[in-house]
Amino acid sequence: MHIMVVGAGSLGLLFAAKLASQCSQLTMVTRTTEQASELAEQGIKLEGEASQTAKSTKSIVYSSYLEETREDIIPNERQVDYIFLMVKQTAITDELVTYLRHQMTDQTFLVCFQNGIGHEQKLSQAIAYDKLLFAVTTEGAKRNGLHSVRHTGRGITYFGVIESNKQLTPNNQHIFFVQMLKSAGFRAELSNNMEVRIWSKLVINVVINPLTAILRVPNGDLLRSEWSRSLMQDLYEEALKLANLKRIALPDKLWDTILTVCEETKTNHSSMLQDIEAARQTEIDYLNGRLVKVAEEWDLVLPTHDMVYRMIKAIEN
Ligand SMILES: NC(=O)C1=CN([C@@H]2O[C@H](COP(=O)(O)OP(=O)(O)OC[C@H]3O[C@@H](n4cnc5c(N)ncnc54)[C@H](OP(=O)(O)O)[C@@H]3O)[C@@H](O)[C@H]2O)C=CC1
Ligand SMILES: CC(C)(CO)C(=O)C(=O)O
Questions:
Q1: pLDDT by residue (tens digit) across 53-99?
Q2: Could you tell me which of 4, 60, 7, 62 has the C-alpha nearest to residue 31?
Q3: d(C-alpha 303, C-alpha 300), whole Å
Q4: Which atom number of ligand 1 is nearest to the Cα of residue 140?
Q5: Whether the predicted pLDDT of 209 surpasses 80
Q6: Structural domain spans, the chain
Q7: Which end of the chain is more exposed for a tag (fewer CB within 10 A), N or C?
Q8: For residue 277, what pLDDT band results from cuts at 50, 70 and 90?
Q9: What order do you get walking across the sheet with 45-47 strand by strand?
């Protein structure tokens, strides 16, 4: 099986490092030539896991998006079975989508790992829905430097389709693919409930991420004050109203899950706080910003989401 990982950030490096020994070919596409060269020289360093240091990733072929798109995009010589799209939502440009299409044949599936919503619409305009798989993962990863990554939390990854009323046909290729992820040490499952899974993760992110980024606190600190808890509750209830209108049956215990995530990741800086600290654009447009827009289509106002959205945009500026 030939896997291509696009985006050598936190999640991309983690998955590539662990999958390298399980598939017949793994191609990793970085953004910059500098990172591709460093990875080709040093391999991926999986911090904290002694058995899986740089050496295990020697077989990976590294290439750089900027280098490849400088001239005409050359389609991949060997058919790619699955492309793991592991860039932030903000990096999914028209140019990147064109590049991805050139890497795909009729047999290739594009697997999208992004948090939030919005990318599915953009990608489905260029790539047939039956070639798109969506992944919801609770794995945690943090890149340090260009070739080093730490596995910060073990989780589970669900894969499935999201076109309404369509179920994932568990063909042999997908079953083999999930088996390969399991052999690489990941918990992985095919799911026929992706909309609910995507929205459950979305609600967790829209409650925790903006507040940690505005207050500049680790996830656990949100639980320490009644004031931040009440803001969390407002964000949660507004999101629930929208989900109910859309008839998305979120789990009854989602609020408890949010509190548990804060507790279990209490010292973590959320991805949005990390983006703000590094002066990077955040994924707010695809989280609270997107909820506000979708709510407008239903004549619903989400005042707390609108307020945190505007605050993050102001901080980003
Ligand atoms: N990290 C985690 O634990 C989790 C992340 N996610 C989601 O997964 C997605 C990726 O997150 P994460 O790995 O943390 O993000 P990172 O920012 O760490 O990694 C994204 C990578 O994409 C690269 N990139 C950007 N544009 C291109 C391009 N055109 N071609 C190739 N590479 C490109 C970036 O390169 P450069 O650095 O050079 O700009 C960067 O290395 C996000 O949507 C996030 O919400 C979901 C669950 C957990
Ligand atoms: C669950 C949470 C909030 C963990 O930090 C996360 O997914 C993120 O930071 O984006």
A1: 555 566 799 999 988 877 665 666 679 999 999 999 999 999 999 99
A2: 7
A3: 10
A4: 3
A5: yes
A6: 2-192, 196-316
A7: C
A8: very high
A9: 45-47, 148-153, 140-144
User: Quick check: do 2-192 and 196-316 share a fold?
Assistant: no
Distance CA 121, CA 89 (A): 12
Q: Which residues, 6+ apart, have CB-to-CB distance to 142 below 8 Å?
A: 10, 149, 150, 152
Q: Please tell me the residue having the least CA distance from ligand 2 atom 9.
A: 270
Q: Residue 78 has what pLDDT? A: 72
CA distance 11 to 3: 15
Q: Are 302 and 242 spatial neighbours (Cβ–Cβ below 8 Å)?
A: yes
Q: Is 268 in the pocket of ligand 2 (CB under 6 A)?
A: yes
pLDDT in tens, 210-255: 999 999 999 999 999 999 999 999 999 999 999 999 999 999 999 9
Q: What ipTM, to 2 d.p.?
A: 0.98
C-alpha–C-alpha distance, residues 264 and 104, integer Å: 39
Nearest residue (CA) to ligand 1, atom 31 = 31
Round the average pLDDT of the chain to a whole number and report it: 92
Does the beta carbon of 89 lie inside 6 Å of ligand 1?
yes
248 lines ligand 1 (CB under 6 A): no
Where would I find the H helices in 184-270? 194-215, 226-245, 254-264
Please report, as a single letter, which amino acid is at residue 131: K
Sign of CA dihedral 213, 111, 141, 277: negative
Residues in the chain: 317
Q: For residue 84, give the 3-state DSSP assignment.
A: strand
Structure tokens that stand for 20 in this block: 């390298």
The amino acid occupying position 89 is Q
CATH architecture assignment, domain 196-316: Orthogonal Bundle (1.10)
CA atoms of 294 and 53, how far apart (whole Å): 44
Question: Is the CB of 29 inside a 6 Å radius of any atom of ligand 2?
Answer: no
Going by alpha carbons, the residue nearest to atom 4 of ligand 2 is: 270
Both tokens of residue 267?
């010292």
Pick 2-192's CATH classification: 3.40.50.720, 3.40.50.10140, 1.10.10.10, 3.30.230.10: 3.40.50.720
